[in-house]
Specification:
The complex is a heterodimer of chains A (122) and B (106).
Chain A lengths: L2 E5 L3 E2 L5 E8 L8 E6 L5 E7 L6 E3 L7 E6 L4 E6 L8 E9 L7 E5 L3 E5 L2
Parallel strand pairs in A: 2-11
Antiparallel strand pairs in A: 1-3, 3-8, 4-5, 4-9, 5-6, 7-8, 9-10, 9-11
Chain B lengths: L3 E4 L2 E3 L6 E7 L7 E6 L6 E5 L3 E2 L7 E6 L2 E6 L9 E6 L6 E2 L3 E4 L1
The chains are: A mainly beta (122), B mainly beta (106).
Chain lengths: 122, 106
Amino acid sequence: EIQLVESGGDLVQPGGSLRLSCTASGFTFSSYWMHWVRQAPGKGLMWVSRIHSDGRDTNYADSVKGRFTISRDNAKNTLYLQMNGLRAEDTAIYYCSRGVAAAGNPNWFDPWGQGTLVTVSS
Amino acid sequence: EIALTQSPATLSLSPGERATLSCRASQNVKNYLAWYQQKPGQAPRLVISDVSNRAAGIPARFSGSGSGTDFTLTISSLQPEDFAVYYCQQRYSWPLTFGGGTKVEF
């Protein structure tokens, strides 16, 4: 069974930092692009970042560029999101997801982890 | 950035009825459109990719259609487990974007 399990969410003050982790199992992690997608409480979905299977190519949403860093450790089957300079508007459930596509860029999300809640508040 | 507008915001239907959900893109996204289902307290789940390809385990009552800027997700006969929020998403251009969602309620 394919599983993605996020961890690391917490309450943090504005300007603070947090590192999220996502541990994968049930598939060859090192063969897939991976993504982070977030959802503010009661709101819709927003794509945050993605990373190539070998970790050498990354992309970010403009709203997090320069503050967030995506990385991965294929030996540990783990995806990370380092979040610095956190703002109230970063408050959300953060989901990790595997990137898939029948052809072209693997930018469909399947499956998703259960998410981890990040709350930015003083 | 490509905006995706979903309508209606809420669809009130009964089990057995047909649900028709719309997603309109602000620019041509060709066939690079997917649909996700999200139930309360759960993560989203891929339902349809590339306009009309059902994901693994998705029943045949779910179908997708459209091209360019106008897309539709149809649930032919609603089952109790289908009541959820549905989001469309495009991967034609950066950044990847989602629609605001349609809630299918009983």
